[in-house]
Design goal:
Elements (H helix, E strand, L loop, with lengths): L12 H37 L3 H22 L3 H23 L13 H12 L5 H20 L12 H45 L3 E10 L4 E12 L3 E3 L5 H7 L2 H20 L8 E5 L2 H5 L3 H12 L6 E5 L8 H14 L2 E7 L6 H6 L4 E4 L1 H4 L6 H17 L2 E4 L5 H9 L4 E3 L9 H9 L2
Parallel strand pairs: 2-4, 4-5, 5-6, 6-7, 7-8, 8-9
Antiparallel strand pairs: 1-2, 1-9, 2-3
Bound molecules: ligand C2E and magnesium ion (2 copies).
One magnesium ion (MG) binds next to loops.
């Protein structure tokens, strides 16, 4: 087999940033949980000592919530922990402000000030999600703050906290709220600065032509190369050859995947045009990965049309690989675009089949020409009878639906042999060649 070409792994600079960010979120959640636990226990003990059992119970609930937030953070469930901390804190703060910390003529309410800190946290925690969630939660918290700030002074409930305690609480609450606000602001600033630096680095890489497409062979049952998958690499002087796992998430988060994906599409078509001039390569198909965000662009079909038209290649040689995630958001929109691409003559392939929540109905109703069996299934087929049954069934499914099935991640001869026996006709994996530079791929195709 040919020399491995894709061995140089980048140091994963953006991956490192992502890890740093995760660690920061983890520490922040632990700190929030700890503050909730200690405040809840401290005040709970105080109110129990004064015989104010309702207030003590609420304080203990805050402490319990703090423990839950810390456990969730430790279990590496930051999103669940953030939701728990935010929703729990919001409900408890509203309860506290409405029934326990009630403004009197002598002492104003102060607990509601924490709703401002919570709003800032929510805006940052949900910054990568939908605008309605990011701003919706903030608006709800700010409205709650305004309502408590404007609420008329009234006679407190019998179980409300007494004025003498609340008088001390004013300064404790305000000092804690201001300190928390500043800490959250600082953390958010650091986070945003790193996010921007990464976006800038990606943008510079694109404008300085530091992105490259590598090509991994796809072979038939005889081992003849029938096509290739274009796989993106970022070649950086300092970081080395960076693989998609280390920058794709950041490219998606910053929206940079859109110009980058457009470049990939154009570059792949340019490569196909290049191959057309070479008898050893002109029959090859080329597969390009398209992310869900890319497909969601209103002009995606037009971009594909332009890339094909400008390069003058046969649209039938271009395959667009989509994962099931494209169908999650706006299924009708995705289906419409897929039909338009199919009508153009472009082949569609369902990538990583079996890795997600693929439903058979997708395959039946959508114009896929191909499905790729995920490496998760092909990896264990030789030793695991269960995995082998799954691949056999998937291959049968492909035959029933009349679509090509390609097995990904083939590394060993016995995997190739077993899948061949099962009727698989298309393969991709290190056994046939790693992703390689365009020149190495061309050389390999010309070799006798
Ligand atoms: P994918 O589309 O499923 O690509 C297959 C991945 O498996 C590639 O990793 C490839 O190098 C690796 N691979 C192939 N054969 C073997 C094998 O025998 N053993 C093992 N262990 N791995 C094998 P790569 O290049 O790091 O790409 C990872 C993912 O990044 C791709 O998964 C794809 O989802 C995404 N990606 C790559 N290029 C692009 C691109 O241009 N645009 C978009 N949107 N996504 C891309
Ligand atoms: Mg792929
Ligand atoms: Mg795949």
């Amino acid at each position: 087999m040919d020399a491995p070409v894709d061995n140089a792994h980048g140091v994963g600079w953006s991956g490192m940033m992502e890890r740093r960010r995760r660690r920061r979120v983890f520490h922040l959640l632990l700190a929030i949980g700890l503050v909730m636990l200690s405040l809840g226990l401290g005040w709970g003990a105080f109110f129990a000592w004064r015989g104010a059992w309702t207030v003590a119970a609420v304080e203990l609930a805050i402490a319990a919530l703090g423990v839950a937030v810390m456990v969730m953070a430790r279990l590496r469930r930051p999103r669940a922990a953030s939701w728990l901390a935010l929703v729990g804190m919001a409900v408890l703060l509203c309860f506290f402000s409405a029934f326990l910390d009630v403004s009197t003529d002598a002492v104003p309410r102060t607990s509601h000030v924490f709703l401002l800190v919570l709003a800032l946290c929510a805006h940052h925690v949900f910054r990568d999600t939908h605008a309605w969630l990011r701003y919706g939660v903030v608006v709800v918290l700010l409205v709650a703050f305004a309502v408590f700030a404007a609420a008329p002074v009234r006679a407190p409930y019998p179980f409300a906290i007494a004025d003498d305690v609340r008088r001390v609480g004013i300064w404790v609450n305000l000092a804690t709220a201001v300190a928390s606000f500043l800490i959250v602001l600082r953390l958010a600033e650091t986070d945003i600065a790193e996010h921007r630096a990464l976006h800038r680095a990606l943008r510079d890489a694109l404008s300085h032509r530091r992105f490259e497409l590598f090509y991994q062979p796809q072979v038939d049952a005889q081992g003849h190369v029938v096509g290739a998958e274009a796989l993106l690499r970022w070649r950086d002087a300092r970081r080395g050859l960076v693989r998609p796992a280390d920058f794709m998430q950041a490219a998606e988060d910053t929206g940079f995947i859109l110009p980058l994906g457009q470049w990939v599409l154009q570059e792949a078509c340019r490569q196909l045009a290049d191959w057309r001039a070479d008898p050893a390569l002109r029959h090859l198909r080329l597969s390009v990965n398209v992310s869900a965000l890319q497909l969601r662009q209103p002009d995606f079909v037009q971009q594909a049309e332009e890339a094909v038209a400008r390069s003058g290649v046969d649209a039938g040689l271009l395959t667009l690989e989509l994962t099931e995630s494209v169908l999650v958001h706006d299924m009708d929109d995705a289906v419409g675009k897929m039909r338009a691409l199919h009508a153009m003559g472009v082949r569609l392939s369902l990538d990583d089949f079996g890795a997600g929540y693929a439903s058979l109905s997708y395959l039946r109703e959508l114009p896929f020409a191909e499905m790729k069996i995920d490496r998760a299934f092909t990896r264990g087929i030789v030793r695991d009878a269960h995995a082998a049954t799954i691949t056999r069934n998937l291959l049968q499914l492909g035959r029933d639906l009349g679509i090509d099935v390609i097995a990904e991640g083939i590394e060993q001869d016995d995997q190739f042999a077993l899948l061949g026996e099962q009727g698989c006709r298309l393969f991709q994996g290190y056994l046939f060649g790693r992703p390689m530079e365009a020149a190495a791929f061309r050389q390999r195709m010309r070799a006798p």
